[in-house]
Amino acid sequence: MSSGYVSGRVPTRYERLVTKQARAARTSKSDLVARYVIEKSLETEFPGISFRDSLAGREAYLTGHRVSVWEVLAVHEETKSVEKTASHFRWPRVLVKRALAYAKAFPEEIHTARDEETGTASAAR
After folding, report:
1. 48-125: CATH, from 1.10.10, 1.10.4200, 1.20.1250, 3.10.620
2. CA 81, 48, 105, 108 torsion: positive or negative?
3. pLDDT for 80-89, tens place per residue?
4. Fewest 10 Å CB contacts: which of 24, 29, 39, 56?
5. Torsion over CA: 9, 13, 15, 21 (sign)
6. In the 8-state DSSP scheme, what is residue 54?
7. 103 within 8 A of 72, measured Cβ to Cβ
8. What is the pLDDT of residues 58-78, one digit of tens each?
């Protein structure tokens, strides 16, 4: 994947916090800041989507719920209906639509996360 350069200045106390977090995560400050920028940009673009650690690395999930985006997609593929998927999770339809919008925008990421979590091979796709 190609990359671009983003630069910014933050007050020293926040720079120290990022340095501490990078050390704890065993990564570079630059890589951690890049992850923060990417994830916050995606959370802004796709309201209701957040990120957490998983077997596949960082994973998209529905904010306030334990359900990953790939899980919503899997249920939707089975039910073929936003309404039935929402009913399955006991959620409003808007949450399902948000998960499906993210899954549509990032299909490779979602399929990789599903494969890693379920132990299935992506070669079958």
Report:
1. 1.10.10
2. negative
3. 999 999 999 9
4. 24
5. negative
6. E
7. yes
8. 999 999 999 999 999 999 999
